[in-house]
Amino acid sequence: MASFPRRRRRRAVIIGGSMSGLFTAAFLHRIGWDIDVFERSPVELVGRGAGITTHPELLEALEKSGAGTRDLGIELEKRITIDRQGRVIGERLLRQIVTSWDRLQRLLRDTVDPAHYHLGQTFERVEQDGHSVRIHFADGRIERADLLVGADGIRSGVRAQVAPEVQPIYAGYYIWRGTPNESDLAPQTLGSIFPHFVFFLPERQQVIGYPIAGFDNDLRPGHRRYNFIWYRVGDAKTLKDMCVDENGRQHKYSVPPTLIRKDFIAQMRADAEGIMPAAFLDCLRNIERPFFTPIRDFCAPRIVFGRVALVGDAGSSSRPHMGFGVSKAAGDAQRLADALDAYDDVDAALADYNAVRQPIGEHVMLHGRKVGAYLGVGLKTDEDRRMWKLLQDHEAMMDWIAVPNFLAAYR
Ligand SMILES: Cc1cc2nc3c(=O)[nH]c(=O)nc-3n(C[C@H](O)[C@H](O)[C@H](O)COP(=O)(O)OP(=O)(O)OC[C@H]3O[C@@H](n4cnc5c(N)ncnc54)[C@H](O)[C@@H]3O)c2cc1C
Question: What percent of the chain has pLDDT over 70?
């Protein structure tokens, strides 16, 4: 009987222990690769980010990766748009599960053997010889593998080494965010906006809210939180000023929530009093420590560099209007594993991964810019202006923001 040579067991080192790193670890493990995840944070990743809208692609990847979808989140039935007086001026029936970053992290973290998830390990540089990689960490540790996966986010250090020219671009707007506790909100807020995906759309601003699980994934009524997001336009100079912290230190990209200047927060709260409906004001007043995130996007022209592959936000990141970042990360990880499973030749598999996923990342980024036209920043072409006009109608906004299956037309 003819015997076929068995494939040598292969090893991937994954930099970044968040969404895309964990998805990659789960999928590669399932095709028989040895994996090790190296995360810079010295402590478990909890309490990061807030609400995450889900898409069919994400639910499928959670099931196929072995993470599953148990107690994933809250299923919403509809979207509404309200006006300044809190009156409902538009409504869409749309079932959608909204979850939280913490819940996803927990489900995915459980798929990885703790012995292969290393906290407090900061990637420094990689060398490659065509068949393998040698990875250096800040503490002097060196690891060898067949593949290095950069899953280290929008400011990826892996990408900085293989494609230093690729830099995220500030969109010209930022968001204030926070998650008030359900138990702190007024009965009127709970009865009006709390159960729904809600839009409030003053000129060149956008307020969005939806319920998410409470502390420790508590989904019981009375124990949940509300995900509050307020988009505001601000030029590069405004952002630079906002990036000076409470101690007068200038930050390059953003400011840690605890260091955001109190005068900015006070000004933001005062501005809100002048424009927002009572229910959203109630949310904001119950956010003890609101924080801001500048909106940036980019797409690397390649996501494979020899034996280095980028996944998730390291390869491309879009403006968050579609709520698709984690779904995109999951799709990258899934395709990378599918390709490595289908091809014996790692380089052929990586070429396949690049050919399929890079254009998707680019498409998602461009789609995010389209939806972001609502805010009226940097409208250059007739198409930009057409989108801007279309989205001034709140009915259109409910059809474009974070809707499932927006990629179907592209495929
Ligand atoms: C305001 C906002 C709202 C969003 N809403 C949604 C939503 O509703 N739905 C959705 O799907 N997505 C949403 N996203 C996007 C989503 O959060 C990201 O796409 C997702 O977190 C990307 O995951 P990642 O693992 O690629 O990167 P990250 O989550 O950024 O993780 C990168 C990890 O790498 C680690 N790391 C970095 N450098 C090193 C190093 N040198 N060595 C070792 N480790 C390192 C970091 O500590 C971090 O843990 C939103 C984003 C924003 C900003």
Answer: 97
User: Distance, CA 244 to ligand 1 centroid (Å)?
Assistant: 23
Query: If pLDDT is split at 50, 70 and 90, which confidence band does 45 have?
Result: confident
What mean pLDDT is reported for the chain?
94
Contact 16, 314 (CB under 8 A): yes
Coil/strand/helix, residue 85: coil
* Dihedral sign for Cα atoms in the order 382, 388, 393, 397: positive
Query: How many angstroms is it from 142 CA to the middle of ligand 1?
Result: 25
- In single-letter form, the type of residue at position 41 comes to S
Q: Which helix (H) or strand (E) holds 79?
A: strand 73-82
DSSP state of 251: P
Among 182, 175, 170, 226, which Cα is nearest to 205's?
Answer: 175
| pLDDT per residue as tens digits for the range 296-330 | 999 999 999 999 999 999 999 999 999 999 999 99
Give the per-residue pLDDT at 411.
64
Name the residue among 84, 85, 62 with its Cα closest to residue 73.
Answer: 62
Q: What is the pLDDT of residue 230?
A: 98
Q: How much is the pTM?
A: 0.94
Please tell me the distance between residue 61's alpha carbon and the centre of ligand 1 in angstroms. Answer: 17
Residue nearest to atom 37 of ligand 1 (CA): 152
Ligand 1 neighbours by CB, cut-off 6 Å: 15-21, 38-41, 45, 49, 51-53, 122-123, 151-153, 157, 175, 293, 312-314, 320, 323-327, 329
Nearest CA to ligand 1 atom 30: 153
Atom of ligand 1 minimally distant from the CA of 154: 30
> SS3 of 198, please?
strand
- pLDDT, position 3: 47
- Rounded to 10 degrees, what is the CA torsion of 132, 137, 142, 144? -20
Is it the case that residue 6 has pLDDT exceeding 60?
Answer: no
3-state SS, residue 409: coil
